[in-house]
Design brief:
Helix content is 46%, strand content 15%. It is of the alpha+beta class and 726 residues long. The protein has two domains: 15-131 and 202-286 and 580-725, Thrombin, subunit H (Beta Barrel); 290-551, no CATH class. The protein is built from 28 helices and 21 strands. The strands form four sheets. Strands 1, 2, 3, 4, 5, 6, 7, 8, 9 and 10 form a ten-stranded antiparallel sheet that branches. The structure holds arginine. Residues 96, 216, 219-220, 223-224, 334, 338, 658, 661, 678 line the site of arginine (ARG).
Length: 726
Amino acid sequence: MKKILLMIVAVMAIGINSFAFNPPDEGMWLPIFVDRLNYTDMQKMGLQLTAEEIYSINNSSIKDAIVGLSGSATPSGYFCTGEIVSDKSLLFTNHHCGYDIIQQHSSVEHNYLRDGFWARSFDEELPNEALSASFLVRMDDVTDSIVPFLSDTMTEGQRSAKVRELQGKLKESANEDGKYNVVVKSFFEGNEYYRFIYLVYTDVRLVGAPPSDIGKYGGDTDNWMWPRHTGDFSIFRVYSAPDGSPADYSEDNVPLTPKHHLPVSIKGVEKDDFAMIWGYPGSTNRYMTSYGVRFALDHSNPTLIDILGKSLEIMKEDMDADEEVEIKYASTYAGLANYWKYLIGQSRGVKHLDVYGKKKALEDKFIAWIGQNQERKENYGEALDLIESGYSQHEDPFAMFMYYNFALMSPAIINYAQEFTQLEKQLEEIKDNPEAPGQTIEYLREGMAEYFKDYNAPTDEKMLAGMYAMFAKNIPVESQPEFLKGITKKYKGDYNKFAADVFSKSIFASEEKLNTFFDNPKVKILTKDPAYKLSGQVMEGFMSSLAAYYSSQSDLDKGSRLFVAGLMEMESDKVFYPDANSTMRLSYGSVQDYYPADAVHYDYVTHLYGVMEKEDTTNPEFIVPKKLKELFEAKDFGRYGKDGQLVTCFLTTNDITGGNSGSPVINGNGELIGLAFDGNWEAMSGDIAFEPELQRTICVDSRYVLFIIDKFAGAQNLIDELTIIE
Ligand code: ARG
């Protein structure tokens, strides 16, 4: 193993420009290797900056303007990417990235989802309890501090325990007494490890968002599709303590002075223009085998599509009937709908593009290569067998875990009741510690308002009925947990009756009932509560399904690690890039059109007139705001239009995935030309196999973004902050 790694490193060191197999657009590259692996190529394609200007740990560089967005103060992954665009740390990301936060600030009285939101001064910016922006300080290769301490005789369990222990030490030694958040991650299926050191800012405020009729224009119909006309952006600002260090929200905090901010170009894009995208892609499976493809097509995708489809159906019915419910569930719904359509598109794409066949061909080559000598047989001979058996062991635990996660745990009442387990214990011990429940109750009472703000009991009741019925129907009786069999028996298979019973009796069904309980908390009320009891049973089942899920993965883990190591040896003249894993990556390519099907050509830009063409006053996804129509009719595009047109979105060949949402699209001069926000339908298999001819990144043009801020919202205060390149 060690030898292989050394070889790979050697190949990487001399391998400048050896893209024998990778077209340049494919690959999510680690910025520390850019100088060595990609720089010459990027220059040829139009990059004007020096390598030091794009990634440096000593001087300010592009990397300092890129942030990972998370809900945590010590994140190990990021739901989206943002970029700093002013010297006061104004931050751009997608509207769909800010969606949950915009939703949290929305109510029927202040419906920012519907109407948009614009802070006209710093003091109108809205603080957020759980939103952080991570800046990467530096990263390093720590493979040699981990891999030599692992051995082939270890079980997978021992191996991961050892990895965790070593990761812990590596984090500890770099966090400088908690100043930094340190993350160590596995690359190439556990063949390499890298460490990332971040400064995490936890005071990030909402500054601006267009109405959803712009920011989510086209809705779920247009999602994952081109041609697109969505103004998918929102604006935040990072605050720091007066000395520039990270600090939780305080009135004394000031806008952070960033090391670097991106200028915004409104010069416009042309076909073939160089484009690079920086950000935090979440996960890809480019080294997935044909067995994995079969597993996705036959098991994982259909299971998830079924479960998610059902919960979407339940939510949608109530959302359509009531604006208040619509606001409450908007963000949850959008997230699930996005994933659901992704899975459908992925299965379609995988079949359509014969990804299985392509993977199989590579494996045949691999098997032949192994067959050529004994050492290879010893090192990699069992890789594919392990993967094959791994998937079959994984099938049932996978389904069970998914059903727990997305069906049994999905009614909010189940999760919420869990938060009361501590209180139960304290109420039991009340004599020993009379103060304790008081504090816990206070804490729970505080959280209650927030919980009920986004809660609609009738919808949750339907969720309980629908999801439990689905579980009972689709999971064979012999595998079902006892409590579910009990429910089926007691209610004679009528899950509506079961749910109605739970909701009529539980204290968790309304704020009112819960308040009554808080006024006079009795342990018996809690332990007899049907939702509380059920929640305990579900949680127990969930935990054991999780354990089974993980332990069923050990053959897969080992097989994949060997397979990737073998592939790297087999194709040693090729430069490999690691799968996405929520670490900072750079991808580069160009502005480009495509041919989605025989005789069909898709241009690389869309225009504001396309927004008007798609307008449908009977469909909530295609409503055009009045003001936008007026600006269009008057052709009042300001400096953002050209030849009487305004560009809305454009396409590039960059290699991105979920987590890259909000990522800056940067031209050869280091200027922002747009924000990446989606992928295209014809290449939805892209996370498993990159399709150079078909795969495109969908971006909102910076001119459309600035036009909306300036002309539509009249937020001159924000325009004045930007460094605009005309
Ligand atoms: N497909 C996009 C992504 O995963 C999200 C688009 C959000 N828009 C929407 N209509 N739900 O990044």
